[in-house]
Automatic annotation (TrEMBL):
Keywords carried by this UniProt record: Kinase, Transferase
Transferase listed as a keyword: yes
Record InterPro entries: Aminoglycoside_PTrfase, Kinase-like_dom_sf
Protein origin, superkingdom: Bacteria
GO molecular-function terms, A-Z: kinase activity
Record's protein name: Aminoglycoside phosphotransferase (APT) family kinase protein
Coiled coil regions in record: none
Domain Aminoglycoside phosphotransferase: 25-238
Highest classification ranks of the organism: Bacteria, Pseudomonadati, Pseudomonadota, Betaproteobacteria, Burkholderiales
Parts of the chain that traverse the membrane: none
Pfam families, A to Z: APH
């Protein structure tokens, strides 16, 4: 399917930025359309959520375009509040939300994806890890309303992701661990105390000149904050195993910054759940449908290291 800029997105652009210099397609997801707007005010973006995929024969997502628009806008505003608490992490300002056409408009976020540094031999990523871990601590402690409406809009997608990242990964896990793993999964599906980003991978974190930015909030849900932290740390674990360095160094860096931001005092029960989330997320990046992105650059020997590390972690921390 060839995507062209639809008339409603063009009209929204011209309403927000009179006489924009140029509109052009930008990279987006399967279930959203993104247009870059270059005008006298600079570079900005429109994102419109859709109910059908832009390419391929994909089934509908478990949440509607209007629900994802609500989630994206609400969690984006939450992220901006977190940045006010932790200014080392920037979030592009949200310019407008047009619910009639499921569209959000935002400023440009500057930098290159953290992903690029993690899949090469670059080790200069510790500052980004520290900053984002502290920023997460700030975000997870903030209230988010209207809670009931946002739960209804986000819970189906949460269940969809947990099935994909945890339940389907159980085929890779020793049978002796299944009962404890299924209990862990069921508990997380019921957990709704904290608003989490939901997709905090290294492609949604941009780094440039000591500035770290976080983007893309449409997969936000209510859960427990260490889900986000594990999602990010898993990529550092994969990098460190590939480079034959100790993944505990990056883990401890992130955990200490997160605990300090949340005043958790390194609570052991939360630590245990973080380690289980981390084991699942690391294994998921090896065997999930997006494995070519996250672990396609690894040799077979390195993939074995990732698998063995993940299973060993589950064996240690699942209780």
């Amino acid at each position: 399917m060839t995507f062209i800029i639809d008339h409603e997105m063009e009209a929204a652009a011209r309403q927000l930025w009179p006489a924009p210099q140029r509109l052009q397609l930008a990279t987006g997801g399967l279930f959203n359309r993104v247009v870059q707007v270059q005008s006298a005010t600079g570079t900005t973006y429109l994102k419109r959520f859709t109910d059908s995929a832009s390419s391929g024969d994909f089934p509908p997502l478990p949440t509607s375009a209007s629900q994802r628009c609500l989630v994206a806008a609400s969690w984006h505003e939450l992220a901006l509040r977190a940045s006010a608490c932790e200014p080392r992490v920037k979030v592009p300002p949200l310019i407008a939300v047009q619910t009639a056409i499921d569209l959000v408009a935002m400023d440009q976020a500057h930098g290159e994806p953290l992903y690029d540094a993690l899949v090469t031999d670059c080790l200069e990523t510790d500052e980004a890890l520290r900053a984002v871990a502290a920023w997460l601590g700030a975000m997870h402690a903030l209230p988010l309303e209207p809670r009931s409406r946002l739960l209804a809009a986000s819970n189906p997608f949460k269940a969809f992701k947990i099935d994909l990242q945890y339940t389907r990964v159980l085929t890779e896990v020793p049978q002796s661990l299944h009962m404890a793993a299924e209990s862990f999964i069921a508990t997380y599906l019921l957990e709704d105390a904290e608003p989490v980003h939901g997709d905090l991978n290294s492609r949604n974190i941009l780094i440039a000149s000591n500035i770290t930015s976080v983007i893309d909030f449409e997969q936000g849900h209510f859960g427990e904050g260490v889900y986000d932290l594990a999602y990010l740390i898993s990529e550092y674990v994969i990098r460190d195993l590939r480079l034959a360095t100790n993944p505990e160094v990056a883990f401890n860096t992130a955990w200490e910054c997160y605990c300090e931001a949340r005043e958790l005092h390194k609570d052991f029960a939360i630590l245990r759940r973080l380690r289980v989330h981390l084991a699942f997320q690391t294994l998921y990046r090896l065997v999930g449908p997006s494995r070519k992105v996250w672990t396609g650059h690894l040799t077979e020997a390195e993939k074995t290291l990732v698998r063995d590390w993940s299973i060993a972690e589950l064996s240690t921390w699942l209780r």
